[in-house]
Amino acid sequence: MMLEPSIDKLQEKIESKYKLVILSSRRARNLTENKDLQIDKPKSKKYVGMALEEVTAGKLYIEE
């Protein structure tokens, strides 16, 4: 079973798995309240998956 987006693609954008988990969980919580998705036609039906797709698309990132 392949998960989309893959962890390799995600770690190209955000190196730390810990930061990736925190970012995606906060964004998923935000999506449940606002439904303001930054990508068109997400593959995932769950908010965490949608948040990870935003990371892959470069729409969601951490400012250092």
UniProtKB/TrEMBL annotation:
Catalytic reaction annotation: RNA(n) + a ribonucleoside 5'-triphosphate = RNA(n+1) + diphosphate
GO MF annotations, alphabetized: DNA binding; DNA-directed RNA polymerase activity
Enzyme Commission (EC) number: 2.7.7.6
UniProt GO cellular component terms: DNA-directed RNA polymerase complex
Alphabetized UniProt keyword annotations: DNA-directed RNA polymerase, Nucleotidyltransferase, Transcription, Transferase
ATP-binding recorded as keyword: no
InterPro entries for this protein: DNA-dir_RNA_pol_omega, Pol_omega/Rpo6/RPB6, RPB6/omega-like_sf
One of the GO BP terms on file: DNA-templated transcription
Short name of any one Pfam family annotated for the protein: RNA_pol_Rpb6
Keyword Nucleotidyltransferase part of the UniProt annotation: yes
Subunit structure: The RNAP catalytic core consists of 2 alpha, 1 beta, 1 beta' and 1 omega subunit. When a sigma factor is associated with the core the holoenzyme is formed, which can initiate transcription.
Annotated family: Belongs to the RNA polymerase subunit omega family.
Role of this protein: Promotes RNA polymerase assembly. Latches the N- and C-terminal regions of the beta' subunit thereby facilitating its interaction with the beta and alpha subunits.
Protein name: DNA-directed RNA polymerase subunit omega
Gene source species: Oceanobacillus bengalensis
Gene responsible for this protein: rpoZ
